[in-house]
Amino acid sequence: MRLSRLLFVTLREDPADAEVRSHALMARAGFIQKLAAGIYVYGPMMWRVLRRVENIVREEHDTAGCHELLMPAMQPRELWEESGRWDRYVQDGILFNFRDRKGSQMCLGPTHEEVITTYVRRQVQSYKQLPITLYQIQTKFRDEIRPRFGLMRGKEFIMKDAYSFDVSEEAMAESYAMMRQVYRNVFTRCGLRFTPVEADSGAIGGCGSEEFMVDAETGEDGIAVCRETGYAANLEKAVSVISAAAEPSEEVAMHKEPTPGAKTCEALLALFPELPLTRLLKTVLYKVTYADEGEKESVVAVMCRGDREINEIKLSNYLNALAVDLATEDLVKAATGADVGYAGPIGLADHVRLLADDSVKGVKGFLCGGNETDTHYLDVYFGRDLDQPETADFGTVQAGDRVVDGDGEIEITRGIEVGHIFQLGTKYSEAMQATFSDENQKMQVMWMGCYGIGVSRVAASAIEQNHDDSGMIWPLPIAPYAVHLVQMKSGKEDQDALAQEIHDTLEAAGVDVLWDERKKVNPGAKFKDADLVGIPIRIVVGRDAAERKVEWSLRSDIGNKEAIGADEAMARAKQLVQESGR
Ligand code: ATP
Ligand code: MG
Questions:
Q1: pLDDT digits (tens, 9 = 90+) for 181-223
Q2: Is this structure's pTM higher than 0.90?
Q3: What is the domain range of residue 327?
Q4: Whose CA is nearest to atom 18 of ligand 1?
Q5: What is the CATH number of the domain that holds 322?
């Protein structure tokens, strides 16, 4: 492709809203253009990348025996009522929904469990038709709270979603294991460095899931990993051993302590320098929204040891809540009779449900809020001064924690979620009556799995992982072009002829070439653009064209330039492309 024929426009400045490099570089190189928050035009170069990613996804799914189909993006409310997810998604605010001219409520699909379950229940009658795994590559719509990072978190984005249907739990586990391998293959072929982690299943539900995380400092997800045991889990879900709390030297009666202005652990530690953090129990109040209560406000108080943080995802799952938010000042005052910062387990209003993180178990002689402004209780004992509340794991794993299985220490790293696979069990098939008749003509519900890949996010995370100060560095399998052919001076006969020959020969061999033959652009600017665009193989046709000599380099090692023969360069390019599976 001659570059002069492309709409090739680059920007000198990063867009003001670009918080991560992939966003800034893709925008500057004209790969994406913002239309509104979280909504982008994919330019021709970007579209070539996305099609490459899609094709890898397709090949790996097809090889594994999955079948591609395409479902409507627009979905009727009734289906979402059947699965019981309408309210949750509307409450969450994620669902784009509207009425058609007849007044029927519809949504733009954020995901397709309802539609696929409907499709399959109508198509499948007998166990003989199972197992089946279907997938599509399609635009998804989500009204994200914070659309950002360019293609990483869009309101409209491209997803591959697959759904498996099986006759039994064991068969579902087999389909799931097969898809896990498909995912490993896809991300490896895309040239990404990634880690599969145990994950929370969120609003999709089901009985177990894993996410595929691209290793990146700028990732939105925290991951707990243990090098010794290989444990890896999203922080939303991760567990660790809770260390023992410090014990008091003697048992003292509970008493009130004046704590003027001390609303935080730090302030309290300053007042009680002898008190270990593990004997300080905080009580945090939450406003909890449940599906069946509408707008009614429920308040839950959660106790937690001072050295641990509360994990709102675990709390929300435990309560089976639609949403869990920190209580407002008014709710706190109504629950405690005090200003914010003095909540505690003793003397809370009756309407407040009290829970505690596992870390409070066995803590003796602790300090806790007094439910009275500027007051705390000290030397409090469960059993003696109050009952130990209902406890569960509501804690967030921290760096340095010990792993639960085996012997090892947890580190916290960051990642970008590019894929998520779920064992759904019978959640949707039961709710939506997706049944089949088994070998004995008995009706059974199907066992489902679902599997997502953020196609546009994969492309963005490849750049998050592979870039330098000058621009993007595309992995060869998904690069917009394989070869960037830079012609130093257009219109010089020997250069024109050699560049044309290299272009035509490589293209004929299935190696796609972007040929920068712009006339009024100087070589320095051409190199700058080539650095920005990040095509992996670079061949420069210049002064030595008459001797069929070119300059060879790779974008990933751009300082390393070699003068070689044109035929050698073409042979190398073909070989690299072949090896990459492009
Ligand atoms: P996240 O936790 O990042 O919001 P999710 O868990 O809601 O994602 P899934 O429902 O599991 O996402 O969707 C499957 C895949 O689609 C994700 O693994 C991710 O790669 C991609 N994806 C999800 N939301 C977006 C978005 N707003 N923009 C781009 N890609 C997305
Ligand atoms: Mg997910």
A1: 999 999 999 999 999 999 988 766 666 799 999 999 999 999 9
A2: yes
A3: 255-392
A4: 419
A5: 3.90.960.10
